[in-house]
Amino acid sequence: MKLMNVKNVEKLFETVNKCNGKVELVGDDIQLNLKSKLSQYFSLAKLFSDGEIPELELVTTDPDDNALLMRFMMDNNSEM
Fold first, then answer.
1. Staple partner for 3: which of 7, 24, 47, 56, CB 3.0–4.6 Å?
2. What is the pLDDT of residues 7-63, one digit of tens each?
3. How far is CA 67 from each of CA 11, 46, 60, rounded to the nearest angstrom?
4. Nearest residue to 1 via CA among 68, 77, 80
5. Dist. CA 6–CA 15, nearest whole Å
6. Three-state SS for 43?
7. What is the sign of the dihedral through the CA atoms of 63, 16, 8 and 75?
8. How far apart are CA 5 and CA 22, in angstroms?
9. φ, ψ (nearest 5 deg) of residue 26
10. Residue 43: predicted pLDDT
């Protein structure tokens, strides 16, 4: 699942923490478990430089988590 133009990173991580299964950030040479606080901080440092993340590729193991993340994108991805 791709998330585009993520502006509210804090709310994204709150949503990820509510997911039941694994949520992993994947890239060309990286795969991070976003349910880990350390990975969340690492991903912020690595990806979040302009106040917005243009694109994230996430892999989830629970179909309900996909719906939760889609709801985040539709409802809660506004600037704080």
1. 56
2. 788 888 899 999 999 999 887 777 889 899 888 887 776 665 555 567 788 999 999
3. 15, 26, 10
4. 68
5. 13
6. helix
7. positive
8. 22
9. -120, 145
10. 73
pLDDT at 3: 83
One-letter identity of residue 53: I
Domains, in order of start, for the chain: 2-75 (3.30.1340)
CA angle 13, 51, 33 (to 5 degrees): 30
Separation between Cα atoms, residue 79 and residue 52, nearest integer Å: 9
Measure the N-to-C terminal CA separation of the chain; round to a whole number of Å: 24
Q: Residue type at 9?
A: V
